[in-house]
Specification:
about 15% strand, 4 helices, alpha+beta, 4 strands, about 130 residues
Length: about 130
């Protein structure tokens, strides 16, 4: 995913778009070295484990997990595993267009809406 993410960040640098990474590597120094080696230039938070605060609060079930939020902080789509790049690009283009059309109407300083943790349905066999 890194090459596609790099291309997205470059292509969308002048648009209402942000890519934020969450890293769960245990060793922070190794994480920083890998980040530099792979050319990660976007915001990224080191969590130290898969049970760090962000993966826990957001109910992450596996890696990679991707959440696509709109300019109002609403989760519009999520993926467990890498998304189809064409589908992702099309959805991002759509959400950027919505953000531009709604310029000035985004809630300032509001937190993104976190997904509800996945709960198993006792009626379903699995």
């Amino acid at each position: 995913m890194i090459p596609h993410e790099k291309a997205l960040v470059e292509r969308m640098k002048n648009e209402p778009f942000a890519l934020v990474g969450i890293n769960t590597d245990r060793d922070k120094d190794d994480y920083r070295k890998q980040q530099e080696k792979m050319g990660v230039t976007w915001r990224s938070s080191w969590q130290g484990s898969t049970s760090g605060p962000i993966p826990t609060e957001w109910g992450v079930q596996g890696f990679p997990t991707l959440y696509l939020l709109d300019h109002k902080g609403v989760i519009r789509k999520s993926w467990l595993g890498g998304p189809d790049e064409k589908e992702l690009d099309e959805l991002i283009e759509k959400l950027v267009a919505e953000a531009k059309a709604d310029k000035g109407n985004a809630p300032a300083g509001k937190d993104a809406k976190k997904p509800e943790p996945k709960k198993s349905d006792p009626k379903k066999k699995g």
